Amino acid sequence: MNHKEIHIRYTEYENMQELSAEDRELASMAVEATVNSYAPYSEFHVGAAVRLTDGTAVTGANQENIAYPSGLCAERTAMFYAAAKYPDIPMETIAIAASSHGELCREPATPCGACRQVMAEYQTRGGKPISIILVGSRKIWKFSCVDDILPLIFDSLGKD
Ligand code: THU
User: Fold this and answer.
1) Domain locations in the chain as residue ranges
2) Which has the closest alpha carbon to 94: 139, 143, 45?
3) Partners of 53 in the β-ladder
4) Closest C-alpha to ligand 1, atom 8
5) Is the pTM of this model over 0.90?
6) CATH architecture of 10-148
7) Above 80 in pLDDT, residue 158?
8) I need a labelling partner for 1 at 20 to 30 A (CA). Which of 24, 100, 109, 148 fits?
9) What mean pLDDT value characterizes the chain?
């Protein structure tokens, strides 16, 4: 028997000013995108901004539906749009923010499992790590690849 451990690394920033200029811009886009959220049921407004390797940036926001499972998270809205419009350009960074009661949440909003799985697939497809920036008003977390928010990524198809 062997006990094993998996370590993840991330950087915590106190505020947006500590980010690089390009990360700050993407983080701001994610915060702005929360305004386009359609979330009458949860009233939890999430925004995401994806930067591609050529510098193009696209945004998305969560879209809810009265038939609950028909809605979609902000992260997947943004990533699916990016992949549908620019299929050959790898994704480099995704920034995510959430607001509730009209204010940016204090803690970083962490993506759901389904969104992490989709990030993992685009990371593999693009052939380079996707960084994740989680924006809270009190702190910001940056992960340098999807593996750090989704250890043991499912990639078993075709393997035995
Ligand atoms: N939501 C996101 O947009 N991203 C996530 O990673 C988790 C949750 C949305 C879905 C739903 O509209 C609302 O937040 C409450 O779950």
Assistant:
1) 10-148
2) 143
3) none
4) 73
5) yes
6) 3-Layer(aba) Sandwich (3.40)
7) no
8) 148
9) 96
Specify whether 75 is catalytic.
Answer: yes
Ligand 1 in reach of 65 Cβ (< 6 A): no
Catalytic-role residue among 14, 18, 64, 75: 75
Q: Which two tokens stand for residue 80?
A: 């699916």
User: Quick one: the chain helix, strand, coil %, rounded to 5?
Assistant: 30, 25, 40
* Ligand 1 pocket, residue 64 CB under 6 Å: yes
Cα 111 to ligand 1 centre (Å): 8
Per-residue pLDDT band for 3 (boundaries 50, 70, 90) equals very high
Q: What is the pLDDT of residues 9-67, one digit of tens each?
A: 999 999 999 999 999 999 999 999 999 999 999 999 999 999 999 999 999 999 999 99
| Ligand 1 centroid – CA 76 distance (Å) | 10
DSSP β-bridge partners for residue 96: 48, 134
Distance, in Å, from the CA atom of 13 to the CA atom of 76, rounded to the nearest integer, reads: 25
